[in-house]
Every structure is written in structure tokens, then in C-alpha cells.
């Protein structure tokens, strides 16, 4: 028996309120909703977080199918949230403990936003303004270097 709570939910060992499932992805209601209809979209494959999703040559055909199915399910659940609750929707994805992740099995939160409904917790816009253009450019350069390094590694 897995000690991952989401693997256990997907296996049916722990109950959940399921909204959608296919061969590769399951969506169910979050037990601690930030708004009515708050859903979690979860791949059946146990990937810890987005940073550990196989990429490049390390990604098998099944990994690629799961990656595509995950985006498709996130799209479907978001469109359905808009249809069902008459407003908008937000995505939340927490990668890593520092990112606020509490369940180490990759998942996307789809949080419906009804008109006049609750606003999910968010970072404060502008809270981390750059002190100067040079600081902004240094942050961008650091980010771009990491992107280039990942691409050079084939992921
Ligand atoms: P995160 O902080 O992004 O890792 O989110 C994990 C989410 O899983 C939280 O919003 C929890 O409320 C939710 N959660 C934890 N256990 C369960 C469960 N048994 N069924 C449904 N949702 C759960
Ligand atoms: Zn798992």
C-alpha cells in the first residue's frame, strides 16, 4: 500500500468526491475548499511536483501522453468551472515545500470564481517590486540562464 495520500485516493483506498477521470488523470473535490467547487486535477502517475516531471529524452511515450492528458483535464475542469458557477476560475499549482506544497504528488488546483464570490489567497500584487531596472534585469538573466541550462540538458 502506498503511503502517498493521492495515490491511495486514486486507488480507491481513501474516499473522494470524483468529478472526472480517464486513463491518466483524476479530478476530485478538495476537502478544504478555497471556494465552492475547488477541484484537484491529479495524474495517475506519481510525480512529486512539476519540477520532477520527466522531460526531453527522459520522458517516455506514456509520460508525454500523461503530460498532454493533464493539460487537457485542467482545461476541461476550468471550462466546466466557468460553465457551472457562472464566473471565472483560477489555477494554483504548488511545487515544493517552499512553494506551499503539502501533498507531494503533482496536482493542479482549479478554483472556481463565482461573481462576487470569495477571492482565493494570492500573493500581493507589487509586493516584490524591483528596486531598480538593473535588479529586474539581473533577475531576468538568472531566470533565462536556468531556462537555457534546462534546454541544453534536454529538459
Ligand atoms: P497543496 O498545498 O498544493 O499540496 O494542496 C494539497 C491539497 O490537498 C490541499 O488543498 C488539501 O486540502 C487537499 N487534500 C488533502 N487531503 C485530501 C483528501 N483526502 N481529499 C481531498 N483533498 C485533500
Ligand atoms: Zn502519489
Molecular structure report:
- 33% of the residues lie in helices and 16% in strands.
- The protein is an alpha+beta fold and 155 residues long.
- It folds into 2 domains: 5-118, HIT-like (HIT family, subunit A, 2-Layer Sandwich); 125-155.
- A hairpin with a 3-residue loop joins β1 and β2 (25-29).
- It is globular and about 50 Å long.
- It starts with a helix and ends with a helix.
- Strands 1-2-3-5-4 form a 5-stranded antiparallel sheet, covered by helices on one side.
- It binds adenosine monophosphate and zinc ion.
- Residues 5, 9, 14, 16, 30-32, 40, 94, 100-103 line the site of adenosine monophosphate.
Name a few traits of the molecule:
HIT family, subunit A, 2 domains, five-stranded antiparallel beta sheet, 33% helix, 16% strand, binds adenosine monophosphate, binds zinc ion
Amino acid at each position: 500500500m502506498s503511503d502517498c495520500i493521492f495515490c491511495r485516493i486514486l486507488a480507491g483506498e481513501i474516499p473522494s468526491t470524483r468529478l472526472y477521470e480517464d486513463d491518466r488523470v483524476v479530478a476530485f473535490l478538495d476537502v478544504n475548499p478555497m471556494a465552492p467547487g475547488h477541484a484537484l486535477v491529479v495524474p495517475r502517475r506519481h510525480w512529486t511536483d512539476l519540477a520532477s516531471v520527466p522531460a526531453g529524452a527522459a520522458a517516455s511515450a506514456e509520460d508525454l501522453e500523461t503530460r498532454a492528458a493533464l493539460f487537457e483535464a485542467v482545461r476541461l475542469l476550468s471550462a466546466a468551472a466557468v460553465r457551472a458557477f457562472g464566473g471565472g476560475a483560477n489555477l494554483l499549482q504548488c511545487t515544493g515545500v517552499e512553494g506551499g506544497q503539502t501533498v507531494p504528488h503533482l496536482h493542479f488546483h482549479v478554483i472556481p470564481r463565482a461573481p462576487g464570490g470569495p477571492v482565493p489567497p494570492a500573493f500581493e500584487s507589487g509586493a516584490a517590486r524591483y528596486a531598480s531596472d538593473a535588479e529586474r534585469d539581473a533577475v531576468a538573466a538568472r531566470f533565462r540562464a536556468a531556462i537555457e541550462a534546462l534546454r541544453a540538458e534536454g529538459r
